Amino acid sequence: MAIVDRDMPLKEQMKFDIRAQEVDIMDGDPQLDADGGATISLGPQQPMMGGHNENLAENMSDGDLDVIARELSDAYDGDKDSREDWSSTYAEGLDLLGMKYDDRTNPFPGASGVSHPLLAESVTQFQAQSYKELYPAGGPVKTQIMGATNPQVEAQANRVKEFMNFQLTHVMEEYEPELDQMLFHLPLSGSAFRKIYFDNTLGRPVSKFVSSEDLVVPYQATDLMTCSRITHVVKMMANDLRKFQVSGFYRDVEVGEAPEDDPSAVQDKIDELAGKKKVYTKDNMYTLLEIHTDLDLPGHEDANAAGEETGISLPYIVTIEENSNKILSIRRNWAEGDQLKTKKQYFVHYKFLPGLGFYGFGLIHMLGGLTKTATSILRQLIDAGTLVNLPAGFKARGLRIRDDDQPLTPGEFRDVDAPAGDIRNSLVPLPYKEPSQTLFNLLSFVIDSGKSFAAVADMKLGEGNEVNPVGTTMALLERGMKVMSAIHKRMHSAQGKEFKLLSQLFAETLPPVYPYQVVGGNQAVKAQDFDARIDVIPVSDPNIFSVTQRVTLAQQQLQLAQAAPQMHNIHEAYRRMYEAMGVQNIEAMLPPPPQPQPKDPATENAELLSGMPAQAFQGQNHDAHMEAHFSLMYSSVVKGNPMLMANVQGHIMQHISLKAQEQVQAEMAPQMQQMQQMQPQQQQMMQQQQQQMMQEMQKKVADIEQELISEFIAEYEQLLKDSASDPLVELKKDELGLREKEMIRKGKEANEKLGLEKKKLDTNTKVDREKIDQQKDAVAIRSAIAVDKLEKDSVNRVMDKAEKITANMEKTVSAAMKPNGRDK
Q1: Residues 6+ apart with CB under 8 A from 520
Q2: pLDDT mean over 324-346
Q3: Tell me, what's the pLDDT at 35?
């Protein structure tokens, strides 16, 4: 056997590592070349047998399989070693859950070993809230119609939604417990995975939870889509492995005895926290490495159109038994008929927080430090209280206490021999302090910081009788749940990818008929229901992450609808409110509004005459309806009412449109049936043909509608001609003429009256101005008279005063001239 260099490419190793004793490949003696080499003639190649999903390892030599197994095992070991620090951090962080009480002897025997439940509370809160949102009681799946909607597509969407929810809630019994378990692991490790595949044993698709420690990727991987190698570590009982070998799913090769289980550090810690340990060692458990990778297998090389090898590695799934390093199967990992050989996806990555690499960050990484700090402070406070309540100290050597090795019990008194006579002089207790208030405040700060980050703090939206407005409540919810909102959106996106993979498996692997009676349809429609028109999405809302927020938003919508009922659908607003509150069987409490039903022509004419709108429906006898409505148009009531005439004409146009559509659909029915029978591989061609057919149908509908409308216009013009000679119409025209003359006469009278009013107004204005001028002159005259009077009064007063002064002077002079009272 040739010596193989492990640094060689995989395909080169397979060329050199050939064991002649296992397979007879030589067809003659080797021929020596001039350069010292040798040419070996290989025997005839065995043709590949089986279908697209066959086990290729059955037809490969043991030498080639050994080379592939060595190469992939070495790659797996390297991938596993590259994340060793991540695994150790995860394993150490699991201790922070506080599920086990530590018996501590430091700083003293019996010291507190309690752990603060900050991390455990955060994980539990997240698991409970996410579980309720991602798996509601009515089912986790809803559908979305891509493109235009019609009653047929809406019915198809409802069937797909009901079938998916039926599978996930009733048939796939493992889905709910696997989801529940995943939501507990996810916030701890930061990453969790779901594997979606067809289980041959169960005969149906399954969705399994895969923990982060059981899925290994290369160091340089960034996401599952572009990852070059994905290794799923599978634990399998010996009996189950043997079943797969006997059934032909795995190669029937000797894999030896199952090795003793050597769990990882993470699994050891999980078993320790769960209180489990392996005692019975006869359960033979094998470890299988299911590796999704790209290989260039000999005999299955990729070739171009000319038949030349391209050297491109193709996607395969290789399963190896780890202990014996034996390859059990190699299968193609692309869809049959796929010319591009695109790698099929089986795994969906759920991330708690986007880490710095492939694996996400969990609460262990983000709250580990705070949890350790809270645990340390809590233990210090408890230890301080313990030392204060049970103090220790020193005693004199000569002091004798009976049973001094046993602590005192309440109400007990013991005999003491005190040499000094005073027992207080023989005992000196150590000065222990009470638990520190500063440490207690620091503990509260650490807990609040952790809860704020993990979004598990209690949000006080209203205290006492205080009621916050809806907008304020929404703002508080959004501010307090920012982290949870982002995590919820990532999980909503991952679950959407999971449902898309499941819907593809349902369409490809399950029987083409529904397993139950379909309402208003045929059970065989399942084969064409899962097409590109319907998109399967989670029922959870990426923008709503709690019942409180959902109810608050629905309440705001209901208030807006009630404020403007003419602009909203009140029934839909109440229905959304009941849905947000989680009310079951809403139809019993809030029956849907009655839907319009097809009616006979007489009833439609009666509704039109009463001013009510009429609706045309598919499947009606449109010709008979239009004849009845034409007869109504000839009646005098409709002829004399332009609004009623327009309503009748509009209803006739509805019948014309439906008649044209039904006629075209009947003509194109054979072609549509042929397209539905096309294979899934011809999906792209079918979509192109559907688009062309839709364009052709629209063109034909327009042509037929044009013909029918032309006939209608011709009959309507004849109706107008008949209406021209109708005496009632002539009387109506005369009446309108008299009304017009009366309106003209009234207009003239109004204009004349307006002119008289204007003249009267001008006269009154002139008289008022003259009165004002006269009043001004009278005021001026009165002012002048008043001034003259004032002047005369002033002169008279001065003269009177002068006369009085003169008289007084004369009296004075006269008195002076008569001395002693006699005249001189």
Answers
A1: 155
A2: 91
A3: 44
Contacts of 513-518 spanning 24+ positions with Cβ under 8 A? 514/159, 514/163, 516/166, 518/159
Angle subtended at Cα 641 by Cα 640 and Cα 642, rounded to the nearest 5 degrees: 115
* Three-state secondary structure string covering 67-134: HHHHHHHHHHHHHHHHCHHHHHHHHHHHHHHCCCCCCECCCCCCECCCCCCHHHHHHHHHHHHHHHHH
Query: Residue 230 burial (CB < 10 Å; 0-12/13-18/19+)?
Result: buried
Question: How do residues 707-729 score in pLDDT, each as one tens digit?
Answer: 888 877 777 776 666 655 555 55
pLDDT tens-digit series, residues 436-461: 888 888 888 888 888 777 664 444 43
* Separation CA 328–CA 481 (nearest Å): 49
pLDDT (tens digit, 9 = 90+) per residue, 530-539? 877 788 888 7
- Per the structure block, which two tokens stand in for 734? 């005369």
Across the chain, which distance is largest between two alpha carbons, in Å?
203
Instruction: State the DSSP H helix or E strand holding residue 537, giving kind and residue range, or none if neither.
Output: strand 534-538
Residue with structure tokens 């590949």?
A: 48
CB atoms within 10 A of CB 320: 26
Q: Is 423 exposed, middle or buried (0-12, 13-18, 19+ CB in 10 A)?
A: middle
Instruction: Assess contact for 452 and 460: CB atoms under 8 A.
Output: no
> In whole angstroms, what is the distance from residue 395 CA to residue 388 CA?
18
Residue 520 has phi, psi (to 5 degrees) of 65, 25
d(CA 767, CA 770): 5
Q: Bigger pLDDT: 694 or 133?
A: 133
The enclosing H or E element of 707 equals helix 683-724
